[in-house]
Predict the structure.
Amino acid sequence: MLHPRVPEKKGGKPEGRRRVTTERVHLDGRRATVLLVDDDLDLRVLVGQILGAEGYVVQTVGDGTTALLAIEKEMPDLILLDMRLPVMDGWHFVHALRARGRVLPPIVVLTASADAARAAREVGACGALGKPFDADELVSIVQECLSVT
């Protein structure tokens, strides 16, 4: 579970909850990581900025094959996954990830499809966001999916 970090005063004592930063950390102090898999460069930049401002470490890639390579290096805490991708689409990406026998992090499906919830169910995702979405929706679903892990 993730907890916001409480800043400390110079004397080393917490200042209290009123000045909580937005940095998202694990109990061990490690910042939460999000892998965004989407072929839209502008969206990758925007989502990276939004979640980065919320304290997440965000890595972005443009297709499922590159995402698999990134996951071999480090498993993220959450995957934001577009379903319609070049090279390897979202469905094939999830299938390939499961075939590797690894425990999957929560997945949030991002899609312009009219039925984002159906696509999420098909891959066992914890949530879905239909494109376009607003920043508050994005942050909310990321927080929600990370809080259940």
Observations:
- DSSP finds five helices and seven strands in the chain.
- Residues 32-147 form a domain with the Rossmann fold fold (CATH 3.40.50.2300).
- The beta strands are 2-4, 24-26, 33-37, 57-61, 78-82, 107-111, 127-130.
